[in-house]
Design a protein that fits this description.
This protein is an all-alpha fold and 195 residues long. It folds into 2 domains: 64 residues, Homeodomain-like (Arc Repressor Mutant, subunit A), CATH 1.10.10.60; 129 residues, Tetracycline Repressor, domain 2, CATH 1.10.357. The chain is built from 11 helices and no strands. α6 packs antiparallel against α11 and α9 crosses α10. The longest helix is centred in the last third of the chain and has 22 residues. Keywords: DNA-binding, Transcription, Transcription regulation. It comes from Extibacter muris. Pfam families: TetR_N.
Length: 195
């Protein structure tokens, strides 16, 4: 595909992401996306056949963005505690940003086998995130920046509390105190007491 075609596909996904965050997956139509992007139906269908294909492209791009988020920093000798601090600060902001959360749309899409066709993307994302977090936690334990913990258990606590708050932020107001308490507890689990 040409550079212009790639740019158009990215634009479609960017605008569709906003719609999916607003409405969930099931309520977004190709017509909604045409209106949001100001593309003709033919222009939109030239790139994507349906909303499921667009949503799948968005989720795939999210996975690619997440790819090796920590490993590059670890390779560049960034301290594990600094990486942890950066990601937990970002998570705090994301947990209260219900406007950009795809949690409801992801639930709708992946809980409907006829749409997701059981592609296992969520499981792949979970396993990839687990690998990244485990490497970070093990690195932090090796350098004595982190306490000795069960990396898989800490990862599950992080991912499911983060995703839970993201989901609930779509259903009720979430203040900054909830994400701060969660990230504070994660820091207490991992970081040794400062003397």
């Amino acid at each position: 595909m040409s550079a212009k075609g790639d740019k158009t596909k990215k634009f479609i996904c960017s605008e569709a992401h906003k719609l999916f965050a607003e409405k969930g997956f099931k309520k977004v139509t190709m017509q909604d996306i045409c209106e949001r992007t100001r593309l003709s139906r033919g222009g939109l269908y030239r790139h994507y056949e349906n909303t499921a294909q667009i949503f799948s492209a968005i989720v795939s791009a999210m996975l690619a963005d997440q790819e090796d988020e920590f490993s590059e920093k670890i390779r560049n000798n960034v301290r594990a505690s600094e990486i942890l601090d950066d990601v937990l600060n970002r998570y705090e902001e994301e947990m209260i940003d219900s406007g950009s959360s795809l949690s409801v749309a992801i639930y709708e899409y992946f809980s409907s086998p006829d749409l997701s066709q059981g592609d296992g993307t969520i499981l792949q994302q979970y396993l990839h995130s687990k690998k990244m977090w485990t490497e970070l936690i093990e690195c932090g334990m090796c350098t004595k920046e982190f306490k000795t913990v069960d990396p898989a258990a800490v990862f599950d606590l992080i991912v499911f509390s983060y995703q839970g708050v993201r989901m609930y932020s779509r259903l009720m107001p979430i203040g900054k105190d909830i994400p701060r308490r969660i990230t504070g507890q994660i820091r207490q689990l991992l970081l040794p007491e400062r003397e």
